[in-house]
Amino acid sequence: MLKGIDPLLNADVLYALRSMGHGDRLVICDTNFPADAIARQTVFGELLRIDNIGAARAIQAVLSVLPLDTFVDDAAVRMEVVGQPEEVTPVQQEVQAVIDRAEGKSWPLVGVERYAFYEMAKSAYCVIATGERRFYGCFIFSKGVIPPDAA
Questions:
Q1: Ramachandran region of residue 95, left (φ > 0), alpha (ψ -120 to 50) or beta?
Q2: What is the reported pLDDT for 2?
Q3: What average pLDDT does range 13-38 have in this prediction?
């Protein structure tokens, strides 16, 4: 155990998060996402897991250590519902609340069409699969920066 580190963040996940640079993207997905196949195409090249927990809780853990990118408009992305792109599912609403709490303000969660989401995911740094069983529990986040301490 480490002080101040969410216990859901296992050593492999922490290693990947720390290895990412500014602008690198991270996929956090549900159990139905083709996680292993997509993960093999990412920079990290293998699937990471935060099992037996829903997407919102896993994202809460990740955003406790990962800043979101303030230089892009799509630092937080959700997979759109097929045929209903404007619909925001309950799991996506929960994740929106987690993002807003983590960032201390309202933060846009941008919808991306399903197949475009898959393509975006392939170029991500890594993929973390969760135990989320609700549909459309798939998200992509862009890593931001932590500014230096004020002088």
A1: alpha
A2: 78
A3: 98
- Of the residues 22, 36, 51, 115, which is catalytic? 22
User: Is residue 10 assigned to a domain?
Assistant: no
30 annotated active-site: no
- Residue 131, amino acid: G
Q: Is the pLDDT confidence value at 150 over 90?
A: no
Only one residue has tokens 């996506």, namely 92
Q: Output the pTM of the full model.
A: 0.96
User: Is 6 among the domain residues?
Assistant: no
* Position 123 in a domain: yes
For the chain, what is the domain count?
A: 1
Q: What is the pLDDT of residues 109-138, one digit of tens each?
A: 999 999 999 999 999 999 999 999 999 999
Q: What is the pLDDT of residue 45?
A: 98
Show the domain range for 37: 21-142
| 22 tagged catalytic | yes
Q: Please say if the pLDDT value at position 151 is more than 90.
A: no
User: Which of 24, 30, 69, 125 is flagged as catalytic?
Assistant: 69
Tokens 């919808």 appear where?
111
Known active-site residue 69:
yes
Burial profile 89-98: b = 16 or more Cβ within 10 angstroms, e = fewer: bebbebbbeb
Q: What is the CATH number of the domain that holds 30?
A: 3.40.1650.10
